[in-house]
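dumping this here before i forget
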Amino acid sequence: MKLCFLLFITSLMFFAVVKAQRADDYNLVTEDRPLEILYKPLVRGSLSCSKGVSIVTLEAVFQSSGKITDIKILEPSGCKSFDKNALKSTKKIKFKPEIKNGEAVTVVKKIQYSYRVEY
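structure:
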């Protein structure tokens, strides 16, 4: 009888530990995580742009909701058509928002696009 009782108690303890481990697996992520870019579209240049390599630097607000807003050019490339296309492409970026203390937060980030024109 004592042996059956000990086996019963041992099995209860085992199942309690397994259940607790499974509960931890389903908890929400509470760790901090930086913004993650999932997709950054390419920007098409133009043959009207000057020969060489140029870079446009943009700044955008990555909202906690997954939207990108308030895009502005910080440093133009020198080719207006390329800069315009970079603005359009930035709106199409897909991302996972930054996580702080388990909550998605809005952040401001810089984005760069470059092009090379050779004749």
